[in-house]
Amino acid sequence: MNTKASAWIPLLPSHQLRAAQDVVAACAEGEELALWRSAEGLAQVWEDRCPHRGMRLSLGRVHAGRLACAYHGWEYEADGGRCGAIPAQPGAPLPRNLCVKTHAALDHGGMVWTCLGGAAAPPQAAADARATTFCRSLAIRAGLGPVSQALAAAGFEAVQALVWRGELAREAVAAYLTPARDGLTFLHAWSRIDARHPAFASVMAALRRLRASIEAAP
Ligand code: FES
Q: Where exactly does CATH 2.102.10.10 map onto the chain?
């Protein structure tokens, strides 16, 4: 399956991006990304590069509702990425035309999504309303095509771009795929069963077997 640059791409489970605390590195379609949340809790998906001197913003921290770069401490504002403070130069005029490259961001179905290619219709309803327990994220050393083919061979159905639904160990599973870069795809798995249910371990084992079979394929 080919993804279009204008498609919404699932990046990571929403609960793994805590408000006003975390800056998380991610990768989608070869783009390095820095993820964080504004003071209002809105997900931000930014290019992982400071416009000042190019430091990785994912090494920074959230401060006063802005993302502060780890190198010289310049702070960038949510919802636009404009420079909002230079703590080392109090009173100096701010370079208001200096902005981080930002991408569309959305919390939906328990995932943080981005759209790298500009406007696109929001993703449809969550992959499976019954699949509400996050299982795990798997890094699979294979491209999106082989991973998609393996899911299809396992009886999964693509319900929208990058979202599949099927069964593992006789339990309903939703699989969200993140094409990170050539030869690397993340699979985020959700199940309808609680993590304390005896069948949960079977689902996890089935996920590991699925990954092993994909990576072993010629
Ligand atoms: S490189 Fe980020 S503030 Fe200088």
A: 8-115
CATH topology of domain 133-216: Alpha-Beta Plaits (3.30.70)
Q: CB of 176 closer than 6 A to ligand 1? A: no
CA torsion 171-176-179-183 (nearest 10°) is -10
Whether 50 is in the pocket of ligand 1, judged by its Cβ within 6 Å, is yes
pLDDT in tens, 164-215: 999 999 999 999 999 999 999 999 999 988 888 999 999 999 999 999 999 9
Q: What residues pair up with 217 in beta bridges, in sequence order?
A: none
Helices (H), 131-170: 144-153
Residue 170 has φ and ψ, to the nearest 5°, of: 65, 15
177 beta partners:
187
Q: Is the CB of 69 under 6 A from ligand 1?
A: yes
* Start and end residues for every CATH 3.30.70 domain found in the chain: 133-216
Q: What is the pTM of this model?
A: 0.89
The reply to whether CATH 3.30.110.170 applies to domain 8-115 is no
